[in-house]
Design goal:
Blueprint (H helix, E strand, L loop, with lengths): L1 H8 L1 H17 L11 H16 L3 H11 L8 H7 L13 H13 L9 H11 L23
Protein name: Centrosomal protein 20
Keywords: Cell projection, Cilium biogenesis/degradation, Cytoplasm, Cytoskeleton
Pfam families: FOP_dimer
């Protein structure tokens, strides 16, 4: 009954995430030098950190920062925006830059890939069955795009 109660309140997932973060922190050797992060990887990790912070995934953020060896203080959003050549409008300034990148990518690739049959239906099923994270993108008709041969 306790497990069900915690699940219903959404606390169980948070407890599990916190436990994983604490275990990782306990196992992580602070004297171990982390390998240098390439500039591209640093930008990607910072986009992920901003996304996690925005979505209140503080334990996931703490594991990411610790595991990868990111600086404790995030890079400035303006610096990220400039490095990634992102032009923002007023609404996009209130959400993580990753959303702008994904939105731009989708807009630029909508006509290049044929619709994958059943993808929209499976997204609708996810929206109907998800208990912890609701999919809120209405009228979602994009298709997954597989990028081949790119180098990060």
């Amino acid at each position: 009954m306790l497990k069900e109660s915690l699940e219903n309140r959404g606390s169980l997932a948070e407890i599990k995430a916190r436990l994983r973060a604490e275990v990782f922190t306990a196992l992580d050797d602070p004297s171990e030098m982390k390998p240098a992060i390439s500039n591209d990887n640093l930008l990607i990790f910072e986009l992920i950190r901003e996304f996690l912070d925005y979505n209140h995934c503080k334990y996931s953020t703490s594991v990411l920062v610790s595991e990868v060896g990111l600086p404790k203080v995030p890079l400035d959003r303006e610096f990220l925006r400039h490095e990634l050549n992102i032009v923002e409008d007023a609404p996009s300034k209130s959400v993580p830059l990753l959303y702008s990148l994904v939105s731009s990518y989708k807009d630029n690739n909508m006509d290049r890939v044929p619709k994958v049959q059943g993808f929209t239906k499976s997204l609708d099923n996810l929206r109907a069955t998800s208990t912890t994270h609701k999919v809120t993108s209405d009228n979602y008709e994009s298709v997954p795009v597989i990028v081949k041969g790119g180098k990060l």
